[in-house]
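step=encode ok
step=design start
structure_in=
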């Protein structure tokens, strides 16, 4: 039979509140509301469906303090990660939030009312203390600590919630199961011993071998339960990962394994998070839980060292095993033995036996460059899915962002580069000239610093979308401010290549090239706030290329840009 929930009772609030659901739905439309963040949405979904049992709401100040300081709720129940509703004070003032008040919690995607919270208290916390106690260090190289200081709002709202609606999902609905549904599945399949496996990464042969070994060792079935809420920044998107999981499921013996998705917002909290994960799997009915090397670890700290020891998470979960009532299945990293064509835990490999492994960094390199990925590492079906989602460089998009003074020649360079890239072929090429963008996207904007930054941000948005779609984008605004240019780089770099070209033609040459006489009017005082005359141009400190049309012909400048693109594999056939 399935494991008992943490605390003894599955707190499924949808079931608890079903008899008053219509009344709650009517009330929710009349109450002031708070729109949830993405993390809060994930947390609320698992509060409502019982995944976070025994919680029935967001932590009060007393509960928060107890969890942060001692890994326990005030009644002594083990709980290691603080689950709070953080809201800006101004927003709380808008809704008139106060102890005893009721507020609707709305889905940020659809504006649908999901729950009503009865406010128990409003409180503020010592974020540095939370970072030290929960994550082990006040170091913003840790993604959860960075989130804590840069995304968490200033006031925490504690209180129990009542269920109005479950969050609606439009992807992989058939394998998004609540704890009650997973438990019902176990009963239907007559599963009595279940090993749960958590992952936020694609699965390969080693993961399949690890889970099958765990099933053999514990005479159990396997629940593959990947996280599809928030994971570590930079992780592969969940759509790609779920396609990988679906492709790998047929590799298990028939009837051994099931796939079910978990809408969890991970904190990457290492040991504490491992205990939390075990509690969640217990609520879903699992009797065993696999914890591998560096479970939920965020990687390196700001000194270049690992935040947590490789098996620190296993040690903490084992420390609490008597009250967790879920058996931990600890594993070391598996490694491949080519001579015998098998995987073994690293600590079981005989001395002197050759081994092979491909790190995550090396896998990403092979995906980007199109280098082969051997079948001993992953299944062809998995590799095909990953290659579709991570095409090689010559199939990825990129943006060339030319910045410089008016009449510096950047527009002529941009047009010539467009011709060269069209001649190269292989992808569509879009040209975003400064004046065109001003006319088509930013006609209502003036030339204050704020308005200039808005204009550049719009260019960045368009460039990022074109890059994400695999196109070549050439942008040529003045873009005088470094912060705005950096914002564009950050947007575009998420999806492909970004090259900043500073067209550093001297002001005197720009004035000479200005046949429209705009500089003359600016010098005469007829135009105010003109870049290069009475408004600043912040020259890029580290551009990818510096060009000057008084020193090199446009054809040479274009050729140098082409060489940059070829060097990095965006054009050419290697």
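sequence_out=
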């Amino acid at each position: 039979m399935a494991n008992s929930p943490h605390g003894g009772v599955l707190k499924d609030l949808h079931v608890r509140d079903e008899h008053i659901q219509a009344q709650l739905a009517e009330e929710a439309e009349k109450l002031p509301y708070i729109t949830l963040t993405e993390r809060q949405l994930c947390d609320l979904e698992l509060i409502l469906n019982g995944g976070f049992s025994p919680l029935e709401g967001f932590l009060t100040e007393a509960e928060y303090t107890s969890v942060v300081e001692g890994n326990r709720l005030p009644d002594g129940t083990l709980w290691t990660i603080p689950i709070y509703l953080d809201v800006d004070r101004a927003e709380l003032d808008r809704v008139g939030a106060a102890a005893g008040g009721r507020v609707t919690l709305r889905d940020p995607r659809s504006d649908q009312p999901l729950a009503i919270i009865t406010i128990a208290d409003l409180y503020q916390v010592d974020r540095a203390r939370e970072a030290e106690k929960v994550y082990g260090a006040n170091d913003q190289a840790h993604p959860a600590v960075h989130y804590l200081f840069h995304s968490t709002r200033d006031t925490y709202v504690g209180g129990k919630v009542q269920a109005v609606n479950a969050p609606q999902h439009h992807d992989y609905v058939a394998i998004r199961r609540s704890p009650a549904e997973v438990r019902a599945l176990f009963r239907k399949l007559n599963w009595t011993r279940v090993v749960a496996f958590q992952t936020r990464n694609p699965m390969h042969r080693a993961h399949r071998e690890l889970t099958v070994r765990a099933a053999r060792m514990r005479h159990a079935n396997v629940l593959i339960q990947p996280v599809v809420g928030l994971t570590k920044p930079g992780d592969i998107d969940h759509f790609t990962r779920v396609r990988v999981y679906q492709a790998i499921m047929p590799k298990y013996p028939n009837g051994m394994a099931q796939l079910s998705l978990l809408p969890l917002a991970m904190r990457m909290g290492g040991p504490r998070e491992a205990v939390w994960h075990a509690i969640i799997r217990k609520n879903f009915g699992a009797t065993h839980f696999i914890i591998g090397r560096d479970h939920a670890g965020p990687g390196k700290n700001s000194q270049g060292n690992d935040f947590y020891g490789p098996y620190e998470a296993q040690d903490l979960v084992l420390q609490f095993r008597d009250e967790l009532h879920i058996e931990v299945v600890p594993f070391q990293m598996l490694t491949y033995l080519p001579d015998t064509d098998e995987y073994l835990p690293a600590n079981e490999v005989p001395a002197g036996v050759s081994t092979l492994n491909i790190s995550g960094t090396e896998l990403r390199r092979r995906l980007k460059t199109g280098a082969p990925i051997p079948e001993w590492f992953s299944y062809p079906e998995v590799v095909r899915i990953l290659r579709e989602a991570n095409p090689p460089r010559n199939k990825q998009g990129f943006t060339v962002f030319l910045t410089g003074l008016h009449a510096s020649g950047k527009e002529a360079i941009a047009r010539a580069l467009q011709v060269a890239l069209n001649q190269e072929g292989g992808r569509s090429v879009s040209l975003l000239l400064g004046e065109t963008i001003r006319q088509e996207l930013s006609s209502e904007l003036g030339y204050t610093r704020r308005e200039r930054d808005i204009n550049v941000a719009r260019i960045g948005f368009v460039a990022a979308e074109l890059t994400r779609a695999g196109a070549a984008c050439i942008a040529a605004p003045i873009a005088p401010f470094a912060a705005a240019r950096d914002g564009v780089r950050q947007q575009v770099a998420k999806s492909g290549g970004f090259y900043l070209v500073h067209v550093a033609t001297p002001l005197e040459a720009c004035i000479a090239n200005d046949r429209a006489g705009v500089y003359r009017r600016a010098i005469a005082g007829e135009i105010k706030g003109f870049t290069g005359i009475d408004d600043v141009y912040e020259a890029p400190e580290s551009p990818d290329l510096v060009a000057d049309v008084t020193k090199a012909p446009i054809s040479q400048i274009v050729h140098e840009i082409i060489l940059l693109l070829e060097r990095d594999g965006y054009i050419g056939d290697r």
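step=design ok
step=annotate ok -> The longest strand covers residues 113-123.
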